Amino acid sequence: MDTPTANRNSAPAPLDLSEKGLHGGQATSLDRRLFMKFTAFGACRDATAAADALEAAGIEGALYVDANDPAGIGVMAAHEDPEHFVGRLRAVFHGPAFRDLEHKPEFDMLGRSYSIGYEPDLEDTLLIKPRQKLLHPEFAWAVWYPLQRSKKFQTLPADHQRRILAEHGTLAKRYGVAGYAADIRLACHGLDKNDNDFIIGLLGPQLHPLSAVVQEMRKTEQTSQYLDSLGPFFVGKTLWQCKA
Question: Which residues, in sequence order, are bridge partners of residue 174?
Answer without folding.
Answer: none
